[in-house]
Amino acid sequence: MKPLRDFPDGFLWGVATSAQQIEGGIxxxxxxxxxxxxxxxxxxxxxxxSDAAVACDHFHLWREDIxxxxxxxxxxxxxxxxxxxxxxxxxxxxxxxxxxxxxxLVDGLLEAGIRPFxxxxxxxxxxxxxxxxxxxxxxxxxxxxxxxxxVSRRLGDxxxxxxxxxxxxxxxxLGHEQGHHAPGxxxxxxxxxxxxxxxxxxxxxxxxxxRNAAGAQVGIVLNLTPVAPATPTEADRDAARQADGMLNxxxxxxxxxxxxxxxxxxxxARQGHLDGPQMPFVKPGDLAEIATPLDFLGVNYxxxxxxxxxxxxxxxxxxxxxxxxxxxxxxxxxxxxxxxLLVRVDRDYAPxxxxxxxxxxxxxxxxxxxxxxxxxxxxxxLRGHLQAAQRAxxxxxxxxxxxxxxxxxxxxxxxxxxxxxxxxxxxxVTQQRIPKHSAYWYRDVVASGVVDDATLEPSARRxx
Length: 464
Ligand code: FCB
Description:
Layout: E1 12-16, H1 19-22, H2 35-41, H3 58-72, E2 76-80, H4 83-86, H5 96-111, E3 115-121, H6 127-130, H7 139-155, E4 161-166, H8 168-176, H9 188-212, E5 217-223, E6 227-229, H10 234-257, H11 262-270, H12 286-290, E7 296-300, E8 305-309, E9 315-317, H13 335-349, E10 354-358, H14 376-394, E11 399-405, E12 424-426, E13 433-435, H15 437-448
Parallel strand pairs: 1-2, 1-11, 2-3, 3-4, 4-5, 5-7, 6-8, 7-10, 10-11
Antiparallel strand pairs: 8-9, 12-13
């Protein structure tokens, strides 16, 4: 078959997960409570009333999960370290059993020839720190830098690739403005303070990691969303500008230009979400620390946003495609958005390198009578997005790797176990894992570096 879409040699293929979503074992090895453990206990917060106490039980099954990655043939695994495993109360000396877990995981990955990509924070703040103000408190910045130092001191001799935060927008907006995520706060002004502290802690942690890990490559992971106006009217175009300001530039500008975007700051001031024309929580020197040069940018891409102007002129999301073009998250399948986003980020911010650190789709497909999981829609999703990434590469964007979200079906935050993103289907009662057809397909892509147009179903049926 004629290869239609070739990826360059050395392109890094991976899979991604996060601690809170897969590990379980929340009381094992001296782990402390996280804000998500607490949030999940509050009635009505999680769609199916579940929690992450067991999740995929990866805390116990990690060895076999590494075997799955080995079978997939991936060159890298992006996982996160749970802060409350390392520091149960968020401060103080390291909990030995917690660090031992990640130490063994890293060794196991390296033995399997898989490069560990460590995310230091994927939303599981120690609850004890939340009680002292959480990310709204400036003290949490230094706590995070200390935690980053502890982890990098232990793993820095073997781990080269580090990201500080996963998706600061979600931490600030979903967690502190909309209240959909832990800690469930609904305070727009507070969410700006949170965003700033998270960014500042990124800069401090990056410095700590570089001190401890010789040759470390340090980046941050942003969820970026291209925004289109629903119509070409001036009002809708302004709504798109506003949405782009909050979703994308509020993070990209400080990181790459050392300043917040003026128009977006003015929007927030007009809405009464600043404590004045200034942002008093931005102290002298902060922005320089935030703009510490990055070795790479991690981009998570799932969908685009289409917005119109609401009555107050603020952006309101609209759905412009039929329901069959939505994933189970209700997100539009829009591969071209990944291309456009990568080209724009490269043009406007010129990161040295870009990893696509998450991309994937929630579809409910489970095993049929023969135990096979036919998830053709996921294959189509991944194919379309990889082809979009390939076009961006052809346009000169320095995309050097791609991580599928996710290795396993897992605890999808406020949706509990009702949304399945995995290449492996998981039975959350028995912990049985079944490779979906997308796992066979991805395995072929990883082995060949080719994303072909022709086959809908994977050619191989070698069992894992
Ligand atoms: C991202 C998160 C990840 C997962 C996917 C679906 O926002 O980083 O943990 O929940 O969405």
